[in-house]
Amino acid sequence: MAGIFINYRREDAPGVAGRLFDRLVSSYPRHEMFMDVDAMKPGLDFVKQVDERMSKCAVVLAIIGPGWLSVVDEKGRRKLDLPRDYVRVELAAALKREIPVIPLLVNGAAMPSGNDLPKELKSLTNRHALELRHSRFSADSEAVIQALGEIVPRRRPRHWTVGAATAIALLGLLAGFGIWRTIDGGPWIPGLTAAKQEAKLEPTTPDVPTGPAVISGDRIALVIGNSKYPDAAPLRTPSGDARMMTSGLSRAGFVVAWGEDLGSDEMRRMLEQFYGRITPHSVVLLFFSGYAITSDRQSYLIPVDAQIWTEADVAHTGFSLELILERINERGPSIQITLLDASRRNPFERRFRSAWAGLAPVNSPTGALVMYSAALSSVENDNANGASDHSLFVSELLKNVGVPNLTAEDALNRTRRAIRSATHSEQIPWVSSQLTEDFTLVPGPDRSR
Q1: What's this model's pTM, rounded to 2 decimal places?
Q2: Domain spanning 4-156 has what CATH number?
Q3: Please, which pLDDT band fits residue 370 given cuts at 50, 70 and 90?
Q4: For a disulfide at 190, which of 55, 117, 205, 206, Cβ 3.0-4.6 Å?
Q5: More confident: 116 or 442
Q6: Taking the CB of residue 312, how many other CB atoms lie within 10 A of it?
Q7: What gap in Å lies between CA 283 and CA 369, rounded to an integer?
């Protein structure tokens, strides 16, 4: 059922419509909302489909931008005057059925007068309107949700809530591993005191179980899991995956800085601190799970506070993967491994159309290995691991990176084959390796003694 119908004109306010849709999915299940981009079936009569949708609809949001009244077709005719104009057809069907219609005035647009509207739309002027401004989008969209709550009760997707028993069990598990994250969203490293946290990540030995043998060398890792995107659909697995990766890497002897749901400033700070700890003898590992967007054939890691309206905003607000790899490589580490569980559908695709799906290829520097959770220009199946709070990529990855005496390349190739088999070749991770030596993540016991 399409409980909420979003009516908009692509030439007038497509970005606002897409952004509002993304905001609404935090309060309503996606399948109870309708936008023609997602739900219209090709090959079937448009008017009949609209009428069928309206028969099941509880409320219509009519997005009216500054050009809503004046948009014309290729022959110069005002679209709103055309009998089969889709905006006109949708609103007329809703008003005829006396379905509540809430006009949303975008960026200073005025409510149209009855003289400007076709006969079947004149009653729209009697509907109370709300404003939806770019400068106050968060507050205005919340006012829209409150208004909708009077008509359609909020029904959050089930997997967004965590029961108290689950939360207590998770806290107990994390306490057993000695894994905690600072309350203010700052970095965390196993075994560091508060004083050392403030001293910008002074090196220390992780206070968690390590591998079966003494592991030499400077092993450092940065793990980021971004799940809660206020301006996009939240993600189920990144936070839990980041915790699993932190635990697994700590056991393998890495000193791990961990961040969860990081905004732009937090991500920049953690990356700079990470770069500053790399030496020519370091083995470094970067893991990111969350949204990443490809623009101009570069992949950008997206912080949770990103405000993306156009493709130009991607480079402005995201973190370039190529630049991150360059900054790491400049420090001259002996081994460099980057793992990205971010091959997801662009959550802002309704706002611009030129960005393509999946991640772009990168040229791995000498001594480096990069692995994506899915093939280039493709997206992973978020349901591949069922209802688990961990992605299939991370689940299979940790099964293999913990095997003693298994090289990093072998571990990741095993992971790749396992995911391919589990998804029947629908998801095949991409690997680019320029490792010049066999590197073992977990050495076995020393049997020479």
Answers
A1: 0.55
A2: 3.40.50.10140
A3: very high
A4: 206
A5: 116
A6: 12
A7: 12
